[in-house]
């Protein structure tokens, strides 16, 4: 009898935990290229985001903004996959040295690649400028390029960096603003190539990504960050082989 009672309690607890972690919300809009060309921008489709490994309290939609508490570390993913597209997003950190980012062409599933808490994909770094001041080693500050729009493969995704810093690609000009100020990223993703514009100027890029169709992921990583005006313009598809795309998640 005690054994049966213990099993029932375990099942109820497991169901409660699942209910707590299984959630979704809408934030941002997506458009197709023809609607942009015809300037028919009143009918954007809301983007649905699905929890991967965070908590419901991590994310708060407030008007046109999304507030990410930064805790716990993890991601939410888009409901749909994207191949060729332009991503516009504005962001600001509320904590000095705050860390976050957007994953493009992601598998949206850290467990599938044994890489908790991060999925595979290409990370577009959003690291506050004060991070370098807080991580001095042996009297030397890390390069400012590390925080400013760095691009790199995660979870086995390989790339060719435009501006190498090891296996990563660094921005060639510092255009990021500091804590509490809004930054604008425009990210062009086409056929395995990613180009990043920061506050109105292209400063970084990668090519030959081994993964070039997948989910978008927003990252929670320790500090509060706000997102706003997230928009996706889908572009025509290219030639993408099954080995270059990620599995479709249910």
Task: Explain the overall architecture.
- By secondary structure, the chain is mostly beta strands.
- The protein has 3 helices and 17 strands.
- It has a single domain (24-244), classed as Exo-inulinase, domain 1 (Jelly Rolls), CATH 2.60.120.560.
- The chain has helices spanning 2-21, 33-37, 131-134, and strands at 24-32, 45-51, 59-62, 65-68, 74-82, 85-93, 99-106, 121-127, 148-154, 160-161, 164-165, 168-169, 183-190, 193-198, 201-207, 214-220, 225-234.
- The chain starts with a helix and ends in a 16-residue tail after the last strand.
At CATH level 2, the architecture is Sandwich
- How many H/I helices? 3
What fold name goes in the CATH topology slot? Answer: Jelly Rolls
Q: What is the succession of H and E elements? A: HEHEEEEEEEHEEEEEEEEE
Radius of gyration using CA atoms only: 19 Å
Q: In angstroms, what separates the terminal alpha carbons?
A: 38 Å
The CATH homologous superfamily corresponds to Exo-inulinase, domain 1
Please identify the structural class as seen in this structure: mainly beta
Outline the low-pLDDT stretches: 4-20
Count of spatially separate domains: 1
Q: What is the 3D form? A: globular
The CATH class is Mainly Beta
State the total count of DSSP E strands: 17
The major β-sheet equals:
15 strands, mixed
Helix content: 10-25%
Strand content: 35-45%
**Mean pLDDT across all amino acids:** 90
